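Quick one - first record:
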Amino acid sequence: MPGMLREKVFGTLVGGVAKEGEQSQARPALFTFPLLVLGGLVVAGAGLRLYLLGGKSIWLDEAFSIALSRRGSIDLLRMVVLTDVHPPFYYLLLKLWLGLGVSEGHVRLLSAIFSLASIWLMYYVARVLYEDKRAGLIAAAILTFSPFHIWYGQETRMYALLTFFILSSAYFFIRALRYGSFLDWVGFTLATTLALYTDIGAIWYTIAIGAFFLVSARRFSNRIVGWFASHAGIGLLFTPWLPFLLKQASQFTGDAWLPPPSFQAVLGSFLDFNSFNFPWMALSVLYMATIFVWAYIVPEPDSWQRRLVTLWLFVPTGISLLFSLRQPIFLSRNLIAASLGYYLLVTGTIWKFNSRRATAALLLPLIAMNLVSIGYNTWGVEKEAWREVAAYVAQDAGNKDGGLLLFVPGYAEIPFRYYFQRYDLALATQGYPADEILLHPRPKEVDDIGSVFEDRQYVWLVLRDVETVDPDWEVKNWLDTHGYVRTGDLTRNELTVISYVRWDVIQPLYKLSNQTVFSVYLPVTLKNE
């Protein structure tokens, strides 16, 4: 009996998948041709995910992850509840990772590693789902060249880790359905629990899996005990976080930075799944339409595999839409788990054509589109240029004493500080309308703008997305009308830095006869002049 159990548990890791009810036969050698192809895909995926890994600046969300993970463990958990909507597992893991370095490339490498491991996992998920190695290679190829997953495999956020745990959960779940192994149910329980502790979006995936089992209960009636036992285990393991989850949810109300979802937003998410930032949208829509026609309209026998991936794709999307009717949360990255359902749907659609030509005709156009998107994302899309902003302020500040950095909004200080602390310059900071709690133990709220400046001789106004957070340019207008002269500015996408000096400390550059000439900057790039 122990030998048979080991054979069931590890069978798919060394060869073909045994059909339900059959005893596994002798497995082929580990390094078979499909695994060599898979190895090539992992190498290609590594190149795509590691190339220029530290090339782009750290942006707000990444800097938030780093700042949060630098705190003590207990304080980290406290700040997660106070300032975030995500569970803490990723931040705790990142905390350990930061002990080895804090450079852009290093902090992103953690996500790249899990994104690479997900390629390997995707192969086994598709292989056990469709009981075919070719399906596994198709799915692995799709994930390897997915610009959506490459993008988030290069971010210091939890999305690549979530992908890894979701695929782990799905692998053990499908195996448990096929074989009913106790160890597979345990693996499903642990992987799903870790996914829930990584990102709240894992709840949508869990609901999708639950919906699938309910509508397929007759087919898998001999797995009901394992199903209920595993979910009892998941509930028991996740219960300690539920009070904190409710507290986070209660804080995430009121004004939202996302607009209510629209048809364009939903279509945009599917386009992101298919080929993130592909410049010719019509081609991407045509490809998706072809896949959906072959998957749902062309007659074929009912398939539990298709039912599973359909619910995996559409249930998270639908739940996110329903929640967004009250509080907008609909965003592609929040649905990254659903994208895996889409890739497995594409895989099943391509795989059912048992022809190399048909496989190439459907798979190669997607890879070609994705390569275009990858190139565009790598060289044509910039993240927030906080590295450049911090360097500009550091050069301008020099040895100027009495300077103040004013951030609008206050959380703009988080990514700025990530870079500015390298310059070892002592400048006072203040957020508007309040300091960022993640950086200041006792955040100060600004009731009177004038009280912020008092005797400040130099001011650097650092703005992020000012048209949203301060559409009337309130702080800028106050400085412009209260004795401060603009001496320079820098504008990069949504980031702006305006340099000010108080009028009475401006020194004349030179004199012409009895006339004093002052250095006054006349900007032309900013609005509301």
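second record:
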Amino acid sequence: MKLIVITLLKLLVLFPLLSQDYEPYRKGKRGLYTGFITYDGKIIKTVAYDHMRKPHSSAEHYFKRGFVVVGKARMTSEYVGEYTVGAGENRRTVDHYKQGTSRYFYGVMNSRGKLVIPMKYKELYIAGHTAYCRKKIGGKQKTIPIDPADIPFYNMILLSSFEQGLAQVKKDAKVGMINGLGETIVPFEYDSLGAFSEKDIAHALKNGKWGLITLENSEVIPFEYDEMISTYGHPPYRVKKGSKWGVVSEDGPIVKAEYDSVKVWSSIILAQKDGLFGAFDYQGSPVLPLHFDELSTRKQTFAAKYQSKWGVIGSNNKWILKNEYDDWSYLGYGSGRITKNGKAGIEKEGVIIVPLIYEDIRKVSGTWGWDIVKVIKDGKIKLFNLYKKNWYSSKEFDEIIIDVGKSNFLIARYNGKYGLMGKDGNELTGFVFDEIQRFYRNSKYFPAILKGEKVKLSTDGRILDYKEGLNYSSFSNECGLQLIYPEGGANWHKGVVDKDLRQIVPPLYSDIKVLDCENILVQKRKSKQGIYNKGTLKLNPKYTEIKYDGKYFYTKLDTIRWSSDSSLYWPDWSWQLFQTEPFEELIPFESRYRNMGKVSEGLVAVQSYQHPKYWGYVNLKNELVIDFRFKEAHPFEDGKARVKYSKSEWGSGKYRYIDHLGNFVE
């Protein structure tokens, strides 16, 4: 069993020789695969194979690059006796074989076209960390690792996947580096070996001491340290010698190992000695002297405690926020919580962005990835966004509960009622709930209580099953509006409530469409349409069609068609025009416009029943500005409109442009 486990690990050595992906290359008779094409277009030619494929997707991390499974078909045959062929002098007897079935046999080929696993397996596939084949054992087909005798470098244990053609392996309890051909690059003489950097330098443990070596196995830093730690996974390294700490880089020591502690930040090194703190840059030059009680660094500034008081030091090494504060703690995004005389505020890079008038300021727990802090005063809670440097909401809350399951929601209590808020400060619901519980990981809703009834609250603020005789479903999360209809009632009894569950459209309509947060189109069973504006019915449901462009309503109203004796003709319909702010009629029904275009630059194209074949333009006072003389008329844009004009009534006309006065322009 141990041999099999070791074998699985060692097999990794076979696969990542290429640094590029590939595609099989097919050419020649019978469509045989004669090689593969690398990502940069280079063709690696091999002998012809019937089958060529990449490893399974689940193994791509280890095996995708540099190797391909190849296969050839072999025919089985059966001897059935002699067979006579030819005639006359060419007549002869030959052995006759009956052709059997065709079988594939598989192996693995590397980027140089060489078989690294012999092509003798009836089935071979790669998954997880190794390659498997199918063999009949005890009369049953079983999946087993490939034969260890077929695996090169079987006396080595792979410790890492290949990076740029190299892998770290262990041999005889020592660690070294090999390439894809199994050649030793770094000798097997180390107890531990780190990853090599862009400069081909790695930290290594040898005989109980740490140092830095090159890929050519030469020492950069002598093996003299008891510990060597990389803070960010790459240099510089914190090193310990005896009980003292220092910092080294790939170019040599930066800070000597003579300090009680050191911390490495993105560009600064903080050092402590005899209870005092100072700072160095990555070249080892002093940035701040070693005489501060405490020290914390940010991108441009330092928060420093000196003579028992906190302040902020700028890039010029001078106090930009005087050290007169009792406490300081880091909040995030370059900002810190500061206190003085029992009051708390927030500073960012030495500038006070929240005044010191609050009882407490602390991070909102559970908001991973959020930038929000709680600011507390007189028992009320406000929320401040550190990243945007503004208030998350203008409201002062009684309580804040953070959802632990999603971290996209915030439950707040305001004036004694609970509501649900989104990550950007938007109110997903009104503050109307008696209780909202946390959204747990495997749930799809928030358990809540509304007017004494248990309800389910969806993650976008929809009430899923509020009792009180109504069903709720959301169709406008941005506006917080919800569709309502009676339980068990007909589906034409639909209405709308706002986020505070105030009814703004009664449940009387067969269809409802939210045009924007202030305008809702309603439709009755006989397909007549109307408009609610800010919760008030402005247009009764009597219109055949209503169009809306965000500012104007274009309404189509049916009218009288024929007189009783069929001698007089009246329009079939007429268009009206309304604006929303303020909501009023601009072009009345009595104008008898048969067709109407969109309002553009203060003019609208219309077609009257008196001139049914021609279009003209009126202004928003319904005054005719351009006569009815165009066969087509389009909206104005940049001072001109595209029209179709013909001198004769029966001519097809051609397209031209006119100005606001109806004059032709280029």
